Amino acid sequence: MNAQTADTPVKAELRDGVLVVTIDNPPVNALGVDVRRGLSAAIERADDDSSVQAVLIVGAGRNFIGGADIREFGKLPMPPALPDVCNRIEACAKPVVAAIHGAALGGGLEVALAAHYRLAVAGAKLGLPEVTLGLLPGAGGTQRAPRLIGAAAALDLILSGRHIGAEEARQLGLVDRVGASGDALADGIAHVHELLAARAPVRRTRDAAGLADRRASRAAIEAAREQTAKKSRGLFSPLKIVDAVQAALELPFDDGLRHERQLFLQCIDSPQRAGLVHAFFAEREVLKAPETRTAKPRAIASVGVIGGGTMGAGIAVAALDAGLPVTMIERDDASLARGRAHVEKVYDAQIVKGRMTPEAKAAVMNRWTGSTSYDAIAHVDVAIEAVFEDLDVKKAVFAELDRVCKPGAVLATNTSYLDIDAIAASVARPADVIGLHFFSPANLMKLLEVVVPAKVSADVVATAFDFAKKLRKVPVRAGVCDGFIGNRVLAVYRTAADHMMEDGASPYQIDRAVREFGFPMGPFQVIDLAGGDIGWAARKRRAATRDPAARYVQIADRLCERGWFGQKTGRGFYLYADGARSGTPDPEVEAIVEAERERAGVAPREFTDDEIIRRYMAAMINEGANVVHEGIALRPLDVDVAFLYGYGFPRHRGGPMKYADSVGLAKVLADIREFAKEDPRFWRPSPLLVDLVERGADFASLNHAA
Ligand code: 3HC
Ligand code: NAI
C-alpha cells in the first residue's frame, strides 16, 4: 500500500532527506488499523528509498497519538498488530525520531519508545495509562520502558497510569530533550538534522541498559509486587504488569515481548477490561446531553451560594477552586460566620497537609464574600441554593432570588429530593430554574446531577454542563422525581439490605459482601458515616404517606431512638471507640436486630455472600431500569456514571447496568421473579427489564440507540 494516498491517516512526505510521517486520525490519532498499516508502510518506504536519510514521526492536530484504538478491543484483531508495528519502527535501518506534542499515551508512547530518538515539547502528556482500562502496555511498553528508564520508574509510570509532562519525561530519560520552540514539527526537524550532522547511529531501546543493575531492578520489582498485592484489591491487570516487567529483567527481549503479549491478551479477555472501557466511554458520553448540542451556554463568571452549611460550603469551595468569585448568603451573622469557617476549614486542612500555603489560602479567600442581604448577589451569573431541605423554605429563598438576581442569571437548587418543578413554578422565570445536585463533600465528589425541570430553557441546561466542566465535575442529566437518579435507586437497594438484615443476614455480613464486590464501604457503614439522623428524619417525614402494606424494617429507627447516629455519636451500626473512624461490630446492635426479627415474626435464615449480592444488585438494577424507562435517566450509561462517581460503584464493573449486562438480563429477571414470591410488593420487575429480556436485548443496546 502506498502511504501517500490521500485517504490514509498517515501521510509521509520527504523533506530534505527526512521522511516526515504525520499521523492524522482525528480526534486523538488513535492507532486504528489504517494508522498501523500506514506507519508500517512508511517505515518500509524509508528503508527502501535511498533518498531517505532519517524518519520523523509527528501527530497532526492537538496530539501525538492518544493510544491504541480503544474501540477495537474485544473485536477481531486486524493486522498488522501494534507490537509488530513498533518492532518494525525499531528495526528501521535509518534513524527514527518521534517528536511529541499533546498526548503520547499508551500505544502512542510505545510507538515513541520504539523510535530511536525522542523529544517532547511543553504541554506534552506522556504516560502508559493502560492500567486504567484493565490492561497493561501491550506493544512493548513493559519491555522497553524499564530498559530505558529503569524498573522502578517504569513500574511507577505503568502501575499508576499517570501522565507526565515533557520536563519530567526528560529527567526520567523517557525523552532525550524538550523541544526549544514548542512546535513539535519544527523542533523535530531541527533535531533530526542535528543527529544526521553528528552521524548519530540508530539507537534501539531494546538494547538500552536501564536494567543493567539487576539487583536494584529485582528489588524494585519485588517492592512493586508487594505494594500492588496490598493496594489493588481485586484488580486483575496490576499484578500482570509486575509480571511483565519481571519478564523484561529475566528474559531476552523477544521472549519478553511474547510474554507481554500473552499477559496483555489475558487482560483483554477479562471482564474488568470490558467494565473499565465501558466506564471510559460512558463518562464521555454523558457530556453529550441533547441541550449541549442545540444551545449555547451562558457565561458563568461569578457564583452566589445560599446557605453555608455542609453543602453550601462545599459548593463554595468547588467554585473557588475553579477560580470563580463566590458570594455566600446566610440567615444571620452567626450562620454566615459559620459558613465562612466551614470554607476555611477545608483550606486549613490543606495547609496542615502541606498542600497549600497560608498565602494561597488568603488569595482564594479574597474571592469569597459573604452577606445576610440578597442584594449582594444581584450581579451573579448563577445562584445555587443549599438551604434546609424544606419546600417552603426553598420557595421563600427562590422568591428572593427572583427579586434580586439580574435577568439571565441561572437559579439553581441543590435539593436532594424536592420537586424542582414546584420550585420553578413559584417564580416568574421558571425557564432559568434548574437542579444542580452536588454530592457530599461537594468540593471532592465528582458527580453532579443536572436535574432538568419541565420549563427550563435549553441554554440553562447547556450552561449547567459547561459549569460542571469548569468545576471539574462529571455531570449526569436527570429528570425530576423523588431522588432523581442516584438517591432514588439508593433508597431501593438500601431497603433490600434492610430486608436481608431482618431476614437473617447481619449488617456486618452485608457490608463485608458489598465491600468484597468492590464498593469502598457497605450500606450500613455509609449510614454511620453520613449520620443516621438524616435518614431517620426523612422516614418520619414520609411516615404518613408510606404504603401501610409495604414491609417496613424498624431496626435503624431503634438505633436512632437511642441517639446512635453513627460515627459522630460514637456508635451507630458499629462502635467507634474514642472517635475512631472505622467501627467495630456491636453485640448490642446484634441483639436489637434479633429482637426486631422476633417482633416482626421473622424466623432468621442464613444468607450466603453471593445471595446478598444477588439481591442487592437486583434491587439496584431493577430501579435503574425504572429510572431509564421513565426517562429520568437518558440511557443506562447515565445510571452507570452516576453510580461510578456518586456512590462508589466499583469502576471495573462498569456501573450497575453494565454489570447487569455482564450477568445476563434474563438471569437478573429470573432472580427478581424468584424474590417476588416472598415479597411481590417490593420485587416488581421493571417493564423495561421485562421488555429487554423478551426481545433478547441488553442495556447496552439502549446506549447505542440514544
Ligand atoms: N481510542 C479511541 N477513541 C479515543 C481514544 C482512544 N485511545 N482516546 C480518546 N478517544 C475518543 C474519545 O472517546 C472521544 O470520542 P467522542 O468525541 O466520540 O466522545 C474523543 O476521542 C476525544 O476524547 P476526549 O474527550 O477524552 O479528548 P481530550 O482532548 O479531553 O483528551 C486524551 C485526549 C488525553 C487522549 C484522552 O482522550 C485520553 O486519555 N484517551 C485515552 C488514552 C489511553 O488510555 N490510551 C491507552 C489506550 S490502550 C493502549 O494503548 C493499549 C496498548 O498498550 C496496546
Ligand atoms: P445544613 O443544615 O448543613 O445547611 C443548611 C444551611 O442553610 C444552614 O447553614 C442554614 O443556616 C442555612 N439556611 C437555612 N435557611 C436559610 C435561608 N432562608 N437563607 C439563607 N440560609 C439559610 O444542610 P446541608 O446538608 O448543607 O443541605 C443543604 C441542602 O443540600 C438540602 O437541600 C439537602 O437536601 C441538600 N443536599 C445535602 C446533601 C448532604 O449530604 N448533606 C447532599 C446533597 C444535597
From TrEMBL:
PROSITE patterns: ENOYL_COA_HYDRATASE. The keyword RNA-binding does not apply. One of its GO terms (molecular function) is isomerase activity. Residues 483-576, 613-696 form the 3-hydroxyacyl-CoA dehydrogenase C-terminal domain. One of its GO terms (biological process) is fatty acid beta-oxidation. It catalyses: a (3S)-3-hydroxyacyl-CoA + NAD(+) = a 3-oxoacyl-CoA + NADH + H(+). It comes from the Bacteria. Pathway: Lipid metabolism; fatty acid beta-oxidation. It is found in: Peroxisome. Its main location: other. InterPro entries: 3-OHacyl-CoA_DH_NAD-bd (IPR006176), 3HC_DH_C (IPR006108), 6-PGluconate_DH-like_C_sf (IPR008927), ClpP/crotonase-like_dom_sf (IPR029045), Enoyl-CoA_hyd/isom_CS (IPR018376), Enoyl-CoA_hydra/iso (IPR001753), NAD(P)-bd_dom_sf (IPR036291). Residues 303-478 form the 3-hydroxyacyl-CoA dehydrogenase NAD binding domain. Keywords: Fatty acid metabolism, Isomerase, Lipid degradation, Lipid metabolism, Lyase, Multifunctional enzyme, NAD, Oxidoreductase, Peroxisome. Pfam families: 3HCDH, 3HCDH_N, ECH_1. SUPFAM superfamilies: 6-phosphogluconate dehydrogenase C-terminal domain-like, ClpP/crotonase, NAD(P)-binding Rossmann-fold domains. Belongs to the enoyl-CoA hydratase/isomerase family. In the N-terminal section; belongs to the enoyl-CoA hydratase/isomerase family. Monomer. PANTHER family: 3-HYDROXYACYL-COA DEHYROGENASE, PEROXISOMAL BIFUNCTIONAL ENZYME. This is 3-hydroxyacyl-CoA dehydrogenase.
